[in-house]
Specification:
Rossmann fold, four-stranded antiparallel sheet, single chain
């Protein structure tokens, strides 16, 4: 830790067609190597916060900086440094892509448009699958995998992207308890080994939440508490 990687200053944001801001005057900073948990009720603005950091949602007030640069929907180069895993990213059974193809897609931002993958890209793909213990899934259709297996493959895609900032929206949702434990360990391993700055949204207590350096609570688009510990959160559930 020691240098600020993510910084939001008095940020407000409104979804198109809405009148009520999804975020109100939010200020937040994350240091290099830090892991921050974002908690709060449904519809509180937790996902919105990640979208703003990733430049997916324009802001109406304030500033957002990642790695010292201003973030906007046009920050294509900067977003190569950010890996974002949405909550609802699962593949239906008829999805034609193999698991290794899904991981390789994580490399496309660095490959560039209309260029074929290089040998390095294929090697990084297999190394990422190996890192999450999913190399045996590489030739299986992604839609035929369980929810936990799909999440492993998507984490491999995160690694293959070689980001500096990791944003995870409910990474443990819709999977069985054993897979949650496994994925929690994988996320912590990825965060520590790659020296990432990680922000993740969670609605449940567990080892991932316990491992967070800090916890912030978002309600109605505002940060209402900072520094809550995992036992305090569990008691409030």
């Amino acid at each position: 830790m020691g240098s600020t990687v993510v910084e939001l200053s008095d940020v407000s944001a409104v979804y198109e067609g809405e009148r009520t801001p999804a975020l109100h005057n939010v200020s937040l900073h994350a240091e290099r190597g830090e892991m921050i948990a974002i908690v709060g009720p449904n519809g509180a603005g937790k996902t919105t916060l990640l979208e703003v950091i990733n430049g997916l949602l324009p802001i109406t007030e304030g500033t957002v900086r990642v790695l010292g640069e201003l973030v906007s929907p046009r920050s294509h180069r900067l977003r190569r440094e950010i890996a974002y895993l949405p909550q609802d990213m699962f593949f239906p059974p008829d999805t034609p892509f193999l698991a290794r193809d899904v991981v390789l897609m994580g490399r496309f931002a660095g490959i560039g448009p209309f260029r074929p993958p290089r040998q390095e890209d294929h090697e990084q793909t297999m190394q990422a699958l190996t890192a999450v213990g999913a190399e045996e899934l590489s030739r299986r259709p992604i839609g035929r995998l369980s929810g936990g297996q799909q999440r492993k493959v998507l984490l491999a895609r995160v690694i293959a992207r070689q980001p500096r900032v990791l944003l995870l929206d409910e990474p443990l949702t819709n999977i069985d308890p054993e897979a949650k434990e496994d994925l929690s360990c994988l996320i912590l391993k990825i965060h520590r080994q790659l020296g990432l700055t990680t922000l993740f949204v969670s609605h449940e207590s567990g080892p991932l939440l316990a491992a967070a350096d800090r916890m912030i609570t978002v309600v109605a688009g505002r940060i209402i508490a900072r520094g809550m510990t995992e036992p305090q959160f569990a008691k409030a559930l």
